[in-house]
From TrEMBL:
InterPro entries: AA/rel_permease1 (IPR002293), APC_K+_Transporter (IPR053153). Keywords: Membrane, Transmembrane, Transmembrane helix. This is Amino acid permease. It is a multi-pass membrane protein. GO terms for cellular component: membrane. Gene3D superfamilies: Amino acid/polyamine transporter I. GO terms for molecular function: transmembrane transporter activity. PANTHER family: POTASSIUM TRANSPORTER KIMA (PTHR47704). Pfam families: AA_permease_2 (PF13520). The keyword Transmembrane applies. It is found in: Membrane. The chain crosses the membrane at residues 30-47, 68-86, 151-169, 176-199, 219-246, 267-289, 314-334, 365-385, 391-409, 429-449, 455-472.
């Protein structure tokens, strides 16, 4: 027993060293401490959008083939799309200040099923965000290292993902603060190079415009206007990865500093302006330097070398610093997947689309299970694709545009239904309407171009994931019906318990046998467990202690008001048990606690209860489903058994009461 205790203490010390000290959810400043100001949110969430400048414009430019001067039209289209999508998502932030992004918008404004589809697409998108960001970052890093180092590409990717997982397990703010220097270096280096190249090529602008006109006439006269439109739209769709990440802010509103909506909108503006400048600036710079791909190098690496040719040794080191910052930012961009993916999972868990354990928080107040599943899934994708950025880009942009379309459709429907209530509904309707048209156009183009190249894999993955999610929801719905039937028996139970009808509570004797019952609300499970104690032990127990733990999960940890509401509800629930038993002549009292881990809170309360009632036995009711299976055990936490094991280890008796439904 002592060795076991020593082992657990050492394990806890190691966890504290790696992850950090537990945070107190009742700290009056906790929401201030863990929230992000607009600048930090821009780093943590905008890095995904900004990093897309490392591959989105490149893919769009290369898709033009020999018609490089048409990149001007593509660049203008990219700028328009960025501001339309960001404006439409700003409206989503205003309408959904509690966050939730595409999943919540589609669920509330369209239907729960379409919300589920949006959530599945978003989760796959965030896994691919992590995978493509890490793979692209490793490629950028290998661009200035010896070619032989490419053998270690997957190893590098594995290490980076593991490091980011650990940073996120420590907490959102800590993971972002660590990444600020990398983000700052990227911005400074890229803005410097783009402004320098544009400034030094101002005199070339007339030549570029002339060549653009010539290119347009050449295509139109040779193959017609439709061919010109096809080339531009094809290039535009191949650069669709540029827009991914814009939706991230609307998902992460709960992580923003108060006033959250204002902070989130400021973050969105920063993201849109910086992304438009970066993407369009790079497209124009590609034209000025007439860059072409080189083996083993990204197009940006080739471009930066051309820009700094005349800078001598300083230019060489500046390019290295720029590519390092690009690789670093791509690694930082994976942070968006770790910030928003677990949040979407938590929202879907609260709605019972995925296992409820994904809504639980760790003692660092992060959705630990979500972080781990996102990281492990990204590792699997990187291994499956062998870190091929070309293949990952094919898989990448389809998923996010499904969410874009559903979000815009939901908002369009909302403004139309609210036209008599909202003064400027037409303006809002037009913004989301244009966003809807653009995103549909892009998705159709991307699917048409990329379907046979591997885009079908993403659609198949979304469909398969949705199928699994529907099965999970069906199980929870069936379980909910069974629990409702159990709850319906509550009103009949007191009469069936053969309780002492004495209305005056007996004199308490702390040495008497005491039943300590773990409950989770005043419901059928708790009442059935109480009834079973009387059926099995008759009047053996004179004292009753009711213990309820208020679980602070992702649904509660949104603000101080939500936590206060939880405390009020828990106290109200256990009071009902105390009044019921007291009214039948038994002594009763209650103990409550609040935290992220039920088992840990029960373990803390147990010594206090035993000190007051030395002859106490702990009880907990456990629902037994008609068809118990591995799936059932996976979808339910079975915290009663975990509590039993923990108390057994401390020599405390704990009886599990089976409650068949």
């Amino acid at each position: 027993m002592q060795n076991n205790g020593t082992y657990h203490r050492k394990l806890k010390s190691l966890k504290t060293l790696v992850i950090g000290e537990p945070l107190n959810p009742f700290d009056s400043d906790i929401f201030h401490k863990v929230s992000l100001i607009a600048l930090f949110a821009w780093v943590g969430l905008g890095s995904d959008a900004m990093s897309s400048a490392s591959y989105g414009p490149e893919e769009a430019y290369l898709a033009l083939g020999n018609h490089i001067y048409l990149a001007i039209f593509v660049a203008m289209s990219i700028i328009l799309t960025i501001f339309v999508i960001s404006s439409s998502y700003s409206q989503i932030i205003e309408l959904f200040p509690a966050g939730g992004g595409g999943y919540l918008v589609a669920s509330k404004l369209l239907s729960p099923s379409l919300g589920m589809l949006s959530g599945c697409a978003l989760l796959i998108d965030y896994v691919l965000t992590i995978a493509i960001s890490i793979a692209s970052g490793v490629d950028a890093m290998l661009s200035f290292l010896p070619a032989s180092w490419s053998l270690f590409k997957l190893g590098f990717a594995f290490v980076v993902i593991m490091v980011i997982i650990l940073l996120n397990l420590r907490g959102i703010k800590e993971s972002v603060l660590f990444l600020i220097p990398i983000f700052a270096l990227f911005i400074i280096a890229h803005v410097t190079l783009i402004i320098y190249s544009l400034f030094t090529h101002l005199t070339s602008a007339p030549i570029v415009m002339s060549n653009t006109v010539t290119d347009v006439h050449s295509v139109v006269s040779g193959a017609g206007l439709s061919a010109l439109l096809f080339i531009i739209i094809h290039s535009y769709s191949m650069g669709a990865g540029t827009y991914t990440g814009i939706e991230a802010v609307s998902n992460a509103v709960p992580a923003m500093r108060e006033p959250r909506v204002k902070t989130a909108k400021r973050t969105m503006h920063l993201m849109a302006i910086s992304l438009a400048f970066m993407a369009a600036g790079l497209m124009l710079t590609y034209i000025f330097y007439n860059v072409s791909p080189e083996a083993g190098k990204t197009l940006n690496a080739v471009l930066f070398e051309n820009i700094t040719k005349s800078w001598g040794t300083f230019g060489h080191y500046f390019v290295i610093a720029t590519l390092v910052s690009e690789a670093g930012l791509l690694f930082v961009a994976a942070q968006t997947g770790f910030l928003d993916g677990p949040r979407v999972l938590a929202n879907m868990a609260l709605d019972r689309w995925v296992p409820t354990r994904f809504a639980t928080l760790s003692d660092r107040l992060v959705t630990q299970n979500g972080i781990l599943i996102m990281g492990i899934s990204a590792l699997a994708v990187v291994l499956f694709t062998q870190g091929s950025v070309k293949l990952l880009i094919v898989l990448y942009s389809i998923a996010v545009f499904i969410t874009f379309i559903l979000s815009q459709a939901g908002m369009v429907r909302h403004w139309w239904k609210s036209k008599t209530k909202v003064k400027d509904w037409k303006k809002k309707f037009v913004i989301n309407g244009v966003g809807l048209v653009l995103t549909i156009l892009i998705l159709m183009s991307v699917i048409a171009v990329k379907f046979s190249e591997g885009g079908w894999v993403t659609l198949l993955a979304i469909g398969a994931f949705a199928g699994v999610v529907i099965l999970i929801r069906r199980h929870y719905d069936n379980a909910s019906e069974l629990i409702k039937e159990l709850n319906a028996k509550v009103i009949n139970l007191p009469e069936c318990m053969n309780l002492n009808k004495n209305e005056t509570p007996c004199t308490v004797n702390m040495q008497d046998k005491t039943a300590v019952l773990l409950v989770n609300g005043f419901n059928g499970l708790g009442m059935q467990a109480l009834s079973t104690i009387f059926k099995l032990f008759g009047g053996m127990y004179k004292n009753f202690v009711f213990v309820q733990i208020g679980v602070i999960d992702a649904g509660v940890f949104k603000g101080a008001e939500e936590i206060k509401g939880l405390q009020t509800q828990v106290n109200k629930d256990v009071d009902k048990y105390v009044k019921l038993i007291s009214s039948h002549g038994y002594y009763a009292e209650c103990f409550t606690s609040f935290g992220t881990d039920i088992v840990e809170e029960v373990t803390k309360l147990a010594p206090e209860i035993l000190k007051k009632f030395p002859n106490a036995v702990f009880f907990g009711g456990q629902i037994v489903f008609p068809n118990d299976s591995a799936l059932t055990r996976w979808l339910h936490n079975y915290t009663v058994f975990a509590s039993q094991r923990k108390l057994y280890a401390d020599g405390i008796p704990f009886v599990v009461l089976p409650i068949k439904v």
